[in-house]
Amino acid sequence: MKFTILMFLLIPTILIANPNKNRETISPNVDLTTICELPVYINIGEIKDKVIPTIVYAKIKYDISGFYKGDIVEVIEDVGHGKNYRVKRDDFSNWVPRYAFEFIETHESSPPHLEPFELELYVNHSGFESETNYFIWVDLARQMVYIFTGEKENWSIHRLLICSTGKQETSTIRGTFSIQNRDLELHSTEYARYWVKFYDEYLFHSTPLDLDGNVVDPTLGSPASGGCIRLQLDDAMWFYETIPVNTTVWVN
């Protein structure tokens, strides 16, 4: 006699049947004992618990720009490579100079692993939209860029790219943006190739190179940049050549 085991977690639940079997729909009339992989009931809430925003906090040192000494604020973005910062307290935000606050050190443990089918469930359940058939999620906690193809509520994972985002002093801005212009070479505080803008001075681009094309800082998988999102050279070239203008970018 054959037995079928169904694993139940707390509701709300979503039935994932053979997540690695081309996402086939199983008819209710099919004998589940003939299926090699067991169907599993997944709690979407448990997946959401794994997606934790990476937020940089600071403590205001003086009364300044509408903030008060001792205020704990969220650091949003910087200009001038760390000279001035836009910070936020509740619904109020403003620019303050670097000397007006001190960063609050955080020691977060490594985030739990997310399987590809969990990534798909999360973005589809969250209702993300894009004006193109691509959607991009930059995962600051895991230092990964997830590329999806499809449309709203029907996104499929297409490519996983390891990256390096901004250091604490020059953190990568969080939020929802869209792909803008691009160019082959970047000449700024560092030289890189295949840059693609998604907000103001924030770009996707290759790891830093010398003028001969040799990598001068290979760091990937941990924050190391001045706020941009660094990719391996081949990944940066693919991104530059593939991702269209107006593609939604979610940085979290």
Note the main attributes of this structure.
globular; 3 helices; 9-stranded mixed sheet; SH3 type barrels; 3 domains; 252 residues; L,D-transpeptidase catalytic domain-like; mainly beta; 5-stranded antiparallel sheet
Calculate Rg over CA atoms.
21 Å
Topology-level CATH name of the largest domain: L,D-transpeptidase catalytic domain-like
Instruction: Give the fraction of residues assigned to helices.
Output: 10-25%
CATH superfamily of the largest domain: L,D-transpeptidase catalytic domain-like
How much strand? 35-45%
Structural class: mainly beta
What is the end-to-end distance? Answer: 49 Å
CATH architecture of the largest domain: Beta Barrel
- Count every beta strand, where a strand is a DSSP E run of 2 or more residues: 16
**In order across it, which strands form the biggest sheet?**
11-16-8-9-10-15-14-13-12
Low-confidence stretches: 1-39
In total, the number of domains comes to 3
Write the element-wise H/E pattern from the N-terminal end onward.
Answer: EEHEEEEEHEEEEEEEEHE
Q: What is the average per-residue confidence, as pLDDT, rounded to a whole number?
A: 85
Tell me what the structure shows:
- There is one protein chain.
- The strands form three sheets. The protein has a nine-stranded mixed sheet.
- The protein folds into three domains: 13-50, no CATH class; 57-103, SH3 type barrels; 116-251, L,D-transpeptidase catalytic domain-like (Beta Barrel).
- The chain contains three helices and 16 strands.
- Strand 8 (134-139) and strand 9 form a beta hairpin.
- It has 252 residues and is mainly beta.
- 11% of the residues lie in helices and 36% in strands.
